[in-house]
Specification:
Blueprint (H helix, E strand, L loop, with lengths): L20 H8 L3 E5 L2 E4 L1 H20 L3 E2 L5 E3 H7 L1 H5 L5 E3 L5 E4 L4 H9 L10 E10 L14 E11 L2 H21 L5 E4 L9 E8 L5 E6 L5 E2 L16 E16 L1 H6 L2 E3 L5 E3 L1 E8 H11 L1 E2 L2 E2 L10 E5 L5 H16 L4 E3 L6 H11 L3 E5 L1 H6 L2 E5 L5 E4 L4 H7 L2
Parallel strand pairs: 3-7, 19-20, 19-21
Antiparallel strand pairs: 1-2, 4-6, 5-6, 7-8, 8-16, 9-10, 10-13, 11-12, 11-13, 13-16, 14-15, 17-18, 21-22, 22-23
Helix pairs in contact: 1-8, 2-6, 2-8
């Protein structure tokens, strides 16, 4: 990929009104652009990161045996009225009538829609268990959108829904999903905490939320300074650890995922019933499992940056390496840059080449701002001794290597 054809633009200025580190850096690197308050376009660089995160999530969901589908964004309000959640959502839900007079809403989540789908499928104990998931846009009329894509009116979520014959089956898939979420967050390069949580308007008896310590987080964690125990308690100050009585440190955190044991809350209201082996009618046991896909981008940046810009973890990065020819008017430098670009792409690496006719200082600053894991500089060292300078963004380690050593160095740090 050539920089001049990549739709990448950078800015030195801190955008006005950007409240968080992630929001500022996403705007400065042209990853997103606000259309109206709380609504963002994902530009090519941001979309690459979003796609990488979706790929990680799909991989881990598929390993659990979950099946991907896509549910409608438009939903009949009547389904929400049957579960009583239309009143719980209040003005947060976008509602309207179509030209036929049907009462519709834009889905803020999809428990009702997927349960209605399952009600038409499940008839026998042989039809369960199964888990369905989607990566889908959600809509919520936030009173005060904040922190860019963190709290927005339109956002992308992975939501999964399990249907089982009994509590034992629900417990099994719940534990699988909890483990899958931990794998997803680790692969995204995040430090996180999983804690018991309030089920809120989703409902159910048991739930866990996944929190990422971050300056811009609107949730609160308490960490014991001795035993490292974490607690998440809403609207309550905790001074001492409930385990060792040591002082607790208050930490801002960003919620990125939440899983629930729903039980019969939706399946009973919407009729997901089946006949067991004895011919008796039973109600399916449900679980739901949500993770904020777009919110994960912000979470990754909040934990992976320095004074110069973003530091992308390997699996999330939009590119594996950036080739930086210092002087593109030097024929030898440019030929080597172009040939190295093609060689590395043939090795299935995602490569960006900075083909701009800019000063070296500008290119170096932009490279650090974008945060691509490895930078390969082709400059004076190449002209004098046929050496390439490889710099790793996270460690800042620099090495002078021959052209035949670059691929091995990139692989070593992958």
């Amino acid at each position: 990929m050539f920089w001049t054809k990549s739709f990448i633009a950078t800015s030195k200025d801190v955008p006005e009104g950007a409240e968080s580190v992630s929001h500022r850096l996403m705007l400065r690197t042209n990853m997103v652009r606000m259309l109206v308050a709380g609504v963002y376009s994902y530009l090519p660089l941001g979309f690459k990161v979003l796609s990488n995160i979706e790929g990680i999530i799909r991989d881990e969901m598929n390993k659990t045996g979950a099946l991907e589908l896509l549910l409608p964004g438009l939903q009949p309000l009547e389904l929400w009225q049957r579960t009583g959640r239309d009143e719980l959502m209040g003005e947060t839900m976008f509602r309207f009538n179509d030209r036929r007079g049907r009462k519709l809403c834009l889905g803020p989540t999809h428990e009702e829609a997927v349960t209605d789908l399952a009600a038409g499928f499940v008839k026998s104990y042989r039809d369960v268990p199964f888990t369905l998931y989607q990566i889908q846009t959600k809509y919520r009329d936030e009173l005060r959108p904040r922190f860019g894509i963190v709290r927005s009116c339109e956002f992308i979520m992975k939501d999964a829904y399990s249907f089982d014959r009994d509590q034992k089956g629900l417990d099994i898939i719940y534990d699988k999903m909890r483990a899958a979420y931990e794998n997803i967050l680790k692969r995204c390069g995040l430090n996180f905490v999983s804690v018991k949580a309030d089920s809120g308007f989703i409902g159910g008896d048991v739930s866990h939320e996944f929190l990422v310590p971050a300056e811009s987080g609107e949730d609160t964690l308490y960490k014991c300074q001795v035993c490292n125990e974490f607690k998440s308690v809403k609207e309550v100050e905790i001074e001492n650890c409930p385990h060792c009585k040591a002082d607790m440190e208050k930490i801002n955190a960003l919620e990125v995922g939440h899983i629930f044991k729903l039980g019969e809350k939706y399946s009973k209201a919407l009729g997901v019933k089946f006949l067991d082996e004895e011919g008796k009618q039973q109600i399916a046991q449900m679980g739901c499992y949500g993770i904020g896909v777009s919110r994960l981008i912000a979470a990754v940046i909040e934990q992976n940056y320095d004074a110069d810009g973003i530091i992308w973890p390997k699996e999330v990065a939009p590119f594996d390496c950036l080739i930086l020819p210092v002087n593109i008017s030097d024929k030898d430098v440019w030929q080597k840059a172009a040939s190295l670009h093609d060689e590395l792409e043939k090795e299935n690496l995602k490569v960006l080449i900075d083909d701009r006719d800019e000063r070296a200082g500008v290119k170096f600053k932009d490279a650090d701002l974008l945060g691509i894991p490895a930078r390969i500089t082709i400059g004076n060292k190449w002209v004098k001794g046929k050496l390439l300078e490889v710099k790793h963004r996270r460690s800042k380690e620099m090495k002078d290597l021959g052209a035949d050593q670059v691929l091995a160095e990139l692989r070593r740090n992958s």
